[in-house]
Inverse folding.
């Protein structure tokens, strides 16, 4: 059964002219992406002042690449353990353009990550020439899931990939886990492995849209990890990765740096983008949420480097499965809103699906996911985060442009986008314990509304 209300063939679009379609998810109710009664516009004849959310659709900001999540080995293995009907339900819930929540932009891992069944590399130990390179491991579970998602999502599907660690022999600590650094003498070989990965996936029918240089480039983790200073990372792109991609005919693939938390996003951007030779190979900078909001840091990057993309590449609720938690959904809603309002162009969740323990994970780093698949009961469980993400991903489509908006109180959080078809999507979030009234004001028209406590709404109009 689909968790999404299939209202009609134009499920992402607005109501009739002069009215507003309202979709709501609210705590302590059964409302999950629920269609509420339509709102009606009226003329702003008296110059209404109070409780306003203003829409300024003549102001344009960034364009959205898409929304999605990570197609990890853990997700692939978990989905494969479910019955065929439940597998299809999960794929449809995320990727079906009408039944699902509109995912089109996904992430995968180059070699193993913590959400793999164990460490693995694409080459045998000590193979300096990369003669043993193969993605055979990925053919078992990961590539079939990617192809299945791409087929369901359609032509807008995009995949970007990130490494968690080079092969052990290329690193200073001789292992994939526990950090370590890329040995200088292996920089070119590692860059060549990126190219081989792109080529191998292309041969499997999967095109890579973008790459990040290193997942969590500052972190020494008990799982697959590798540390780069800002200088090491931009030098690697400038001298090795960028030229290797161009020489192989993949200069169109977008390269992103950092791929770690927001508190240092500005400093890493400065290091990468003020080196003109490195910068010409770098499309943008991607980031995670684990150290807090730091939304202003994103605007600082944009203000200094307006031609570079800001991209949210990972976030999840740590500490195992949080069945029934409403706070996890609100965490997603708040962070997505803040990122979008500070120039973020794309957004990807971490694992799309995990099992009843929040894994599998080869070092016990169990986490939550928007969908938990109970492999013992064949039950698909939709967490609050699934619905909060959907209020953005289902209604803000690839190619949508953020437009201006303002609200009367910081108890409300909001963002607004104009979709390619002209539909305006206004997302309103209330994390307080009280219902809050508001009045939408757009082009001299007003519409009265309110949002319940601990709720999120998407309003669609023209």
């Amino acid at each position: 059964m689909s968790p999404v209300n299939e209202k009609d063939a134009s499920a992402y679009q607005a109501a009739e002219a002069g009215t507003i379609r309202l979709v709501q998810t609210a705590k302590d109710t059964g409302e999950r992406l629920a269609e509420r009664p339509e709102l009606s516009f009226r003329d702003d004849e008296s110059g209404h002042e109070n409780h306003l959310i203003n829409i300024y659709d003549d102001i344009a900001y960034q364009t959205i690449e898409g929304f999605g999540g990570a197609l990890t080995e853990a997700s692939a293995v978990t989905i494969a353990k479910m019955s065929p009907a439940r597998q299809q339900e999960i794929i449809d819930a995320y990727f079906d353009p009408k039944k699902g929540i509109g995912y089109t932009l996904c992430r995968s891992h180059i070699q193993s990550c913590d959400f793999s069944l164990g460490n693995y590399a694409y080459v045998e130990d000590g193979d300096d020439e990369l003669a043993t390179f193969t993605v055979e491991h990925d053919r078992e579970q990961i590539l079939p899931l990617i192809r299945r998602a791409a087929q369901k999502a359609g032509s807008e599907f995009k995949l970007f990939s990130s490494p968690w660690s080079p092969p052990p022999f290329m690193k200073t600590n001789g292992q994939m886990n526990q950090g370590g650094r890329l040995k200088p003498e292996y920089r070119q070989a590692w860059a060549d492995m990126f190219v081989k990965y792109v080529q191998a996936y292309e041969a499997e029918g999967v095109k890579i849209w973008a790459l990040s240089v290193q997942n969590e480039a500052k972190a020494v983790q008990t799982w697959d990890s590798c540390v780069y200073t800002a200088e090491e990372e931009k030098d690697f792109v400038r001298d090795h990765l960028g030229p290797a991609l161009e020489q192989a005919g993949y200069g169109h693939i977008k390269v992103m740096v950092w791929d770690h938390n927001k508190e240092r996003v500005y400093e890493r951007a400065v290091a990468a983008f003020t080196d003109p030779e490195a910068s010409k190979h770098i499309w943008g900078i991607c980031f995670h949420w684990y150290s807090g909001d730091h939304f202003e840091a994103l605007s600082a990057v944009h203000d200094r480097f307006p031609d570079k993309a800001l991209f949210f590449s990972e976030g999840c609720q740590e500490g195992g499965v949080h069945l029934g938690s409403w706070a996890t959904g609100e965490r997603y809603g708040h962070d997505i809103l803040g990122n979008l309002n500070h120039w973020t162009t794309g957004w990807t969740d971490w694992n799309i699906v995990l099992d009843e323990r929040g894994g599998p994970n080869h070092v016990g780093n169990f986490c939550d996911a928007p969908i938990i698949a109970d492999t013992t009961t064949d039950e698909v469980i939709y967490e609050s985060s699934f619905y909060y993400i959907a209020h953005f991903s289902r209604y803000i489509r690839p190619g949508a442009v953020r437009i201006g908006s303002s609200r009367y109180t910081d108890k409300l959080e909001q963002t607004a986008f104009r979709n390619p078809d002209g539909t305006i999507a206004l997302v309103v979030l209330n994390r307080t314990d009280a219902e809050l009234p508001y009045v939408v004001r757009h082009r001299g028209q007003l519409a009265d509304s309110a949002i319940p406590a601990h709720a999120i709404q998407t309003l669609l109009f023209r």
Remarks:
- The mean pLDDT is 97.
- The domain at 19-62+402-461 is CATH 2.60.40.1180 (Immunoglobulin-like).
- The first strand starts at residue 19 and ends at 26.
- Residues 262 and 287 are 6 Å apart (CA to CA).
